[in-house]
Specification:
The protein is of the alpha+beta class and 93 residues long. 28% of the residues lie in helices and 34% in strands.
Length: 93
């Protein structure tokens, strides 16, 4: 248990404040079709940071429905979490 906690705390320190770039389909006014899903965020983390995080551990502070920056909380285990930034770019085609 102590080893798992130490690993989670180390990962939280490494990921704190990191920015994830995400391109999603949307309209020309910067609105996204639907909203960004935890699956999309987890996949982007896997590709960009080389970190495999369960989508259920990702919590957006509010639904991500527009382009720009949004904050997410990553709950790695009980008592261990970190805050990250998702930079959303809307692609119209």
């Amino acid at each position: 248990e102590d080893v798992k906690r130490a690993d989670a705390e180390k990962l939280a320190r490494e990921l704190k404040g990191k920015v994830i770039q995400l391109s999603v389909r949307g309209g020309e006014n910067g609105k996204i079709y639907g909203s960004v899903t935890n699956d999309q965020i987890a996949e982007a983390m896997r590709e960009q940071l080389g970190v495999d995080v369960d989508k259920r551990k990702i919590e957006a502070e509010e639904p991500i429905k527009t382009a720009g920056q949004a904050f997410i909380n990553l709950k790695l285990m009980s008592g261990v979490s970190t805050r990250m930034i998702v930079n959303v770019k809307v692609v119209t085609r």
